[in-house]
Amino acid sequence: MSNPWAEPLPSTSSPLPIFLAVLPDLEDSKRLSVRPQHLELSAEGYKTGWILNGGPSFSGTGDERKMTGSWMLLRSTDVQAAKARLLRDIYATGGAWDLEKIVITEVGAAKQ
Questions:
Q1: Prediction pTM value
Q2: What is the side-by-side strand order in the sheet with 66-75?
Q3: How far apart are the C-alpha atoms of 5 and 52, rounded to whole Å?
Q4: What are phi and psi of 72, to 5 degrees?
Q5: What's the average model confidence in pLDDT over 73-90?
Q6: Which of the two residues, 15 and 40, has the higher pLDDT score?
Q7: Which of 19, 23, 27, 47 is the most exposed place for a label (fewest CB within 10 A)?
Q8: Is pLDDT above 70 for 25?
Q9: In the chain, which ranges are E strands?
Q10: Distance in angstroms (rounded) separating the CA atoms of residues 30 and 92
Q11: How confident is the model at residue 112 (pLDDT cuts 50, 70, 90)?
């Protein structure tokens, strides 16, 4: 399996757009069994610049808190390319994410 996050960013005259991906888990998610691989492979995405930030999403609070999916800010040329790259992530191929429920939206950053 190739790491989708290890490929270099394309060189462009302007920064690539940023997308927010919301990636819910399957009911019978295999998240915990593939998590070590996901963390190792996605670390490369931070180094190459594809991934800006990300982490788990939760439902409930306290003792009832449960991981329910992931969110990610990533760079890509367009929404289709962002989805294609996410579909190569181990959470997609390893049975963690519910691929039918992925939502990807282009976002911007407010100037501080």
A1: 0.90
A2: 51-59, 66-75, 18-24, 103-107
A3: 12
A4: -150, 135
A5: 96
A6: 40
A7: 27
A8: yes
A9: 18-24, 51-59, 66-75, 103-107
A10: 10
A11: low
Amino acid identity at 56: P
Please choose, from the candidates 85, 61, 71, 60, the residue with its C-alpha nearest in 3D space to the C-alpha of residue 24: 71
Total number of residues shown for the chain: 112
Calculated CA dihedral for residues 51, 54, 56, 60, nearest 10 degrees = -160
Q: Is the dihedral of CA 24, 21, 7, 51 positive or negative?
A: negative
Q: Please report, to the nearest 10 degrees, the dihedral formed by the alpha carbons of residues 25, 42, 89, 86 taken in order.
A: 80
Structure token pair of residue 76 = 């890509």
Q: Express each pLDDT in 88-109 by its tens digit.
A: 999 999 999 999 999 999 999 7
Question: CA–CA separation, 96 vs 28, rounded Å?
Answer: 8
